[in-house]
């Protein structure tokens, strides 16, 4: 028996990166998966999105673990698309126990800037809310909701050097911070129903988002065309521990814990998997 044996997990952003890792890890522990991803590029996002082939590979990896999977292309920005995808999955798999609202984008220096703001907020914040809210009617006692935040949401950025300089980048921090408050309120009011909700805050994570030209330029603005080799030393600044990034599997293990009965009384948490990144910003507080 696995730690989430015969449960069904609805995962957005499942075609690659953290989302794929979560799908496979939960499948390893006995869950069936409803895997959703956009699988097309967004004009204001400066790195390629996942492809239909990526989503097919996630499905193949889940099936390799002997679990069932329903893989659907859908845009988290559109609640109707998510609702249709989820209902298709439930019709085939029979139930819903776990929601992993993972889909997210980073719009650093995206143009036009106002559209970059909209695309990031619509994906990271509205998309998270859409995923959770289409799932709520199907969740009962013992269900677990898990959202992906970011250690960036916990950093003190109260002072803006140049307002309006990078709307897409600011939108990332704002959206992750806002979804954290959303989950806090949701967890409070779902607790009497026995439904848990938590946020995981990763630091730099070794995915296509991090390993991209816009991210390299964000960490090495002193160079015109920085490479991965140029950016890697700068990535260490985010963490107190000596690593430039964590791996998707590090997050997946926390997702598994929060989805399992081991965390049956864990709710409303802002859980950091950040290699000590938060410690560089704040003193101890009770």
UniProtKB/TrEMBL annotation:
Coiled coil: none
Gene3D superfamilies, per database record: NAD(P)-binding Rossmann-like Domain
GO molecular function: oxidoreductase activity
Top-level EC class as recorded in UniProt: oxidoreductase
InterPro entries: NAD(P)-bd_dom_sf, SDR_fam, SDR_subfam_1
CDD domains with a match to the protein in the record: SDR_c (cd05233)
Pfam families: adh_short_C2
Keyword entries, A-Z: NAD, Oxidoreductase
EC number: 1.1.1.-
NCBIfam families linked: PRK12826.1-3, SDR_subfam_1
Family under the similarity heading: Belongs to the short-chain dehydrogenases/reductases (SDR) family.
Protein name, per record: (-)-trans-carveol dehydrogenase
């Amino acid at each position: 028996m696995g730690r989430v044996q015969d449960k069904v997990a609805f995962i957005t952003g499942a075609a690659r990166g953290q989302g794929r890792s979560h799908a496979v890890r939960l499948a390893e522990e006995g869950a069936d998966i409803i895997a959703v991803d956009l699988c097309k590029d967004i004009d204001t996002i400066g790195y390629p999105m996942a492809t239909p082939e990526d989503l097919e590979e996630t499905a193949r990896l889940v099936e390799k673990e002997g679990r069932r999977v329903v893989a659907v292309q859908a845009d988290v920005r559109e609640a109707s698309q998510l609702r249709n995808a989820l209902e298709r999955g439930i019709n085939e798999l029979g139930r819903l126990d776990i929601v992993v609202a993972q889909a997210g984008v980073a719009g650093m220096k995206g143009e036009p800037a106002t559209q970059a703001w909209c695309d990031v907020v619509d994906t990271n914040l509205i998309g998270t809310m859409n995923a959770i809210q289409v799932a709520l009617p199907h969740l009962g006692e013992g269900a677990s909701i898990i959202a992906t935040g970011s250690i960036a949401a916990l950093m003190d950025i109260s002072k803006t050097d140049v307002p309006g300089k990078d709307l897409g980048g600011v939108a990332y921090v704002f959206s992750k911070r806002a979804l954290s408050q959303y989950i806090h309120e949701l967890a409070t009011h779902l607790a009497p129903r026995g439904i848990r909700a938590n946020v995981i805050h990763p630091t730099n994570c070794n995915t296509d988002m991090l390993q991209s030209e816009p991210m390299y330029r964000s960490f090495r603005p002193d160079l015109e065309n920085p490479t991965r080799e140029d950016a890697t030393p700068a990535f260490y600044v985010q963490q107190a521990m000596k690593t430039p990034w964590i791996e998707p599997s590090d997050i997946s293990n926390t997702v598994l814990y929060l989805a399992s009965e081991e965390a049956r009384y864990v709710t409303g948490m802002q859980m950091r998997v950040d290699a000590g990144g938060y410690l560089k910003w704040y003193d101890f507080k009770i």
